[in-house]
């Protein structure tokens, strides 16, 4: 599956905000960019998309920064996708030709399952501080 860099960075930024979410503490753009090794200029554009969708809040000024717009367990991966890369959820198969309708229905079914999967993943689960996997030799 090909995920856009914009969507990947949005997910990483949201997971980072969720790790430190207490409803009050702001995270500076520079800190987010550094922790996730992303460009601050690109990240601010992404955060603006997320802010317009109501997923993050921002405060201006010297003591400003970003925080989640609501608790992490109430934000789904689908909401993040809708905010920054909604084309990922659209079915672009045309219903033309003899087989067009059946092919489109099949891809719509796949799309529906994908969207349900995205609905089942919360930001809280993405930000959980699980330990690294153990590999045994």
From TrEMBL:
<protein>
    <submittedName>
        <fullName>Rrf2 family transcriptional regulator</fullName>
    </submittedName>
</protein>
<dbReference type="InterPro" id="IPR030489">
    <property type="entry name" value="TR_Rrf2-type_CS"/>
</dbReference>
<dbReference type="InterPro" id="IPR036388">
    <property type="entry name" value="WH-like_DNA-bd_sf"/>
</dbReference>
<keyword id="KW-0238">DNA-binding</keyword>
<dbReference type="GO" id="GO:0003677">
    <property type="term" value="F:DNA binding"/>
</dbReference>
<dbReference type="InterPro" id="IPR036390">
    <property type="entry name" value="WH_DNA-bd_sf"/>
</dbReference>
<dbReference type="Pfam" id="PF02082">
    <property type="entry name" value="Rrf2"/>
</dbReference>
<dbReference type="GO" id="GO:0003700">
    <property type="term" value="F:DNA-binding transcription factor activity"/>
</dbReference>
<dbReference type="InterPro" id="IPR000944">
    <property type="entry name" value="Tscrpt_reg_Rrf2"/>
</dbReference>
<dbReference type="GO" id="GO:0005829">
    <property type="term" value="C:cytosol"/>
</dbReference>
């Amino acid at each position: 599956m090909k995920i856009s860099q914009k969507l990947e960075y949005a997910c990483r930024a949201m997971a980072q905000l969720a790790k430190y979410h207490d409803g009050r503490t702001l995270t500076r753009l520079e800190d987010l960019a550094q922790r996730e090794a992303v460009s601050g200029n690109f990240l601010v554009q992404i955060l603006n998309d997320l802010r317009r969708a109501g997923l993050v809040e921002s405060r201006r000024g010297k003591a400003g920064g970003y925080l989640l717009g609501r608790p992490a367990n109430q934000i789904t991966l689908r909401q993040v996708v809708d905010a920054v890369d909604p084309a990922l959820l659209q079915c672009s198969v045309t219903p033309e030709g003899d087989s067009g309708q059946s092919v489109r229905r099949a891809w719509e079914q796949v799309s529906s399952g994908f969207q349900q999967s995205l609905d089942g993943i919360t930001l809280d689960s993405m930000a959980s501080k699980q330990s690294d996997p153990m590999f045994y030799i």
